[in-house]
Every structure is written in structure tokens, then in C-alpha cells.
């Protein structure tokens, strides 16, 4: 049987999930207000720049007088600073709530326990750490960004039954089936940015958008060290923002940016720039060389690998990854394997 705090925190987490793909660089947060065992108000952070979960839940309460004898459940510590909206910790004080139950403490240094301190100093009872791991897992992009100072990195590729990502002429269409490709478009709508290397851009001419799903297009990221890519490629069509990392020049266009990096041209330099741009998550879609660089440097948090029901006989080998196999799914004949890095000792 669920602990009473777990029960209401699970609902807050459910609500928070409704903001996926819409609130970055803010975390997903849900809030429920409970009076005598009954939820009288609930809300979540719906979109970046909009009201946070707490004010949305408070506004949903039909009888505000009940809030003074209620408990608030918030999946993430209430913010304690002015951003695009006022501090939620102060709002909870203003409405006179008597107890606040928190899932996880915020890793943002602007919050980082300050929200809890504000509540406790005002005499509000605070319980924290309820379903902490579930909240951190839900907001793994946010916590990775705050704690590792880089985006959450997802590697993705499709490989044949005999272990190739493309033919010898770099043709990779179509290893996976339409259902897998639609799932990839859904993933794109949930992440901030998507990256490809020079060869993938040149030979595949990808659009890297969410045309087979509904949602926001990610920022496109391409590595083109010496700016040799044809500017007529879809990547540069102006339909969504594109960052082109190179060693030649900085140049700002209406929907594209050339970003000149240091001579060393390390992946870390690109990730540092993405971090400065508040890009919390990055899907790396290829090609094989770029994926190998991320794997070799152990710069990845998750890998999503499709194995299609097709064989090439020869071609460009798929990346070799070492980690822990998580879940596996049958996507209408394609095998999707989720990999995670091995825990560091």
C-alpha cells in the first residue's frame, strides 16, 4: 500500500510529465494541494515563461480559504528567485499553506535549498525527499545540465542485422521501419537540440525536424570544420535554428549561426557552448564517426539503438558501445535497445 505522501507525490509527478518538451530550460514540475485527504487543486508548469506549477494549482482551488489548512505537494523544490515569474516559495507563504511536501531539492544554485529555507523560517512544516529518485529521473536532463554543466546526451542510430549503419556509399535508407522513424520524430520534439556530423549532412541531407509528429522542432547542430557543406542543404533552409560549429569564422544569420571554435575542436568545446546557450539535451544522430567520438570520450547518458530487419553484407560498421542494456522494445519488427553507461566506481 502506498504511503500517503507517495500517493500525492505520484500525482504531482504525473502532472509534471504533461510539460515534457515545452518547459526547457526549466524543469518539469507538478503540484497538488490536499485538504483532509482530498485534492482540491492541481497544476503543472505548462510552458517556458508561463506560470509555475504552484500558482496554477493554487488558482485551481475553488475555495481559497481551505488552503490555510492544506498540504501542498510539489515534485521539485519551490523556486526562491525572480526569473520570468515570481518566487513560488513566497507565493506559498502568501496563501498561508501549513505544510509542504517536496520530491527533490533543486540543483539550480539560485534555488538549491533556499526555497526550503524560506518556508521553514516562516514556520511552515517541510518534508523533502519524497520519491526523490523518481523526480530526478523525470528531470534527468535538468539535473545533468545543472550538475555536470553540459547537456544530457542521447546517442541514436539504426543498424542492420549484420551491424552496419550505412552502405559503402553512405546510403542508409531505410534501415528502420516507418514506426521507428515516427518514434524518432517524437523524441526530437522532447529534446532541445539534435546533432549530425559533416558526412551525414552531406550524404543524407536530413531535415532533423518533427514532421511526422506534433511538437517543437529542436535546434539543429552540425559539425562542419572547414565550412565545406553545400548551403543548399535542408540544414540551412531557415526553417529552424541551426548552429554550425567550425574552425573558420563566426557568422550570425536570421535562422543560422556559424560558431568558430578553438583549434583543438574538441567535443567538450561544443558542449560548453551548448551549455552557455542553456541547451539541456542533445540527440546525436550520427554519423558513425561522430557517435564513436562521443563513446570514446564517455560523453553520453543514454543510447537508443534500432536494429532493423535487413542486412547489407558490407558497409560502414555501426559504433561499438560498452554499457548496460536497459529496456528493449519490439517496434513492429525493429528491435530498440536502450543502453546506459556503466556506473563509475
UniProtKB/TrEMBL annotation:
GO molecular function: 5-amino-6-(5-phosphoribosylamino)uracil reductase activity; diaminohydroxyphosphoribosylaminopyrimidine deaminase activity; zinc ion binding
Chain sites annotated for binding Zn(2+): 52, 79, 88
Pfam families referenced in this protein's UniProt entry, alphabetically: dCMP_cyt_deam_1, RibD_C
Domain of life: Bacteria
Family affiliation: In the N-terminal section; belongs to the cytidine and deoxycytidylate deaminase family. In the C-terminal section; belongs to the HTP reductase family.
Database matches in PANTHER family: 2,5-DIAMINO-6-RIBOSYLAMINO-4(3H)-PYRIMIDINONE 5'-PHOSPHATE REDUCTASE, DIHYDROFOLATE REDUCTASE FAMILY PROTEIN (AFU_ORTHOLOGUE AFUA_8G06820)
Sequence positions that bind NADP(+): 158, 174, 200, 204
EC identifiers of the protein: 3.5.4.26, 1.1.1.193
Pathway: Cofactor biosynthesis; riboflavin biosynthesis; 5-amino-6-(D-ribitylamino)uracil from GTP: step 2/4; Cofactor biosynthesis; riboflavin biosynthesis; 5-amino-6-(D-ribitylamino)uracil from GTP: step 3/4
Reaction catalysed by this enzyme: 2,5-diamino-6-hydroxy-4-(5-phosphoribosylamino)-pyrimidine + H2O + H(+) = 5-amino-6-(5-phospho-D-ribosylamino)uracil + NH4(+); 5-amino-6-(5-phospho-D-ribitylamino)uracil + NADP(+) = 5-amino-6-(5-phospho-D-ribosylamino)uracil + NADPH + H(+)
Keywords (A to Z) from UniProt: Hydrolase, Metal-binding, Multifunctional enzyme, NADP, Oxidoreductase, Riboflavin biosynthesis, Zinc
Organism: Cecembia calidifontis
Task performed by this protein: Converts 2,5-diamino-6-(ribosylamino)-4(3h)-pyrimidinone 5'-phosphate into 5-amino-6-(ribosylamino)-2,4(1h,3h)-pyrimidinedione 5'-phosphate.
Coiled-coil region list: none
CC cofactor: Zn(2+)
Protein name in UniProt: Riboflavin biosynthesis protein RibD
Positions bound to substrate: 172, 188, 208, 211, 285
